[in-house]
Amino acid sequence: MSQNISLPISLLPLAWKRADLRPVSEKEAWQNLDSSAVRYYCHSEQDACDYFDPWQLRDDFLGWRIEDWHGFFYMAGGWSKSFGITQRDFAEWQQLLREALVRPAKDWRSLTAQFAPQKVSKLTGPLPILFDWRGDVPLAKVVLTDSLVAILATIQVDALRGAEFRICARHDCKSAPFRVEARHKIFCSSDCAHLVAVRKSRERAANAKTTKKAPSRKQRGGKAK
Prior knowledge:
Blueprint: E1 9-11, E2 14-16, E3 19-23, H1 26-31, E4 39-43, E5 50-52, H2 54-62, H3 69-76, H4 87-102, H5 117-124, E6 129-132, E7 139-142, H6 147-160, E8 165-166, E9 178-179, H7 190-213
Parallel strand pairs: 1-7
Antiparallel strand pairs: 2-5, 3-4, 6-7, 8-9
Helix pairs in contact: 2-6
């Protein structure tokens, strides 16, 4: 008979490793669903030299400008030890992970209707976990082997703790979905809220100015009824 237990979960820091840009073989291009790809970023064999906060890495990735997609790997290192990545992949991963954040976990599998099944299976797949017995309470630690695993781990852990996320109401905001801490909050930041307020104020002023300048019927030579 199965038993449910409560166990603290921790994410081990992600070690940064420089990313190398190298040619993609035909097999790798096929695996990445992009036959036009000629090069992609992968982990180098050099030793790790820095560490990332996984949640910050996720926000950085989801808010990264697609036209500067390669710059992400100069900052964060390689993407995955089993998945190469092209610009098209980068954009699809951004869209997929944004959708996963704002949807209930039970709906994740339905994302195969919109995104590559191989990517969705990684989202819903198991994480590498080890148990730390050194403390008074055992601790489950997720081993973050690469950037993709780190980001997926944050999404799964946030889903486990019932965190809710929302996309900013500013239509052109590129930031990652924000955690909902107050039901009335619809913007990711005060800057976005202020910008939308300024835009609406200018729109109202422009509309009022247009209405004021519009000639009356009498001025146009018509007769009032």
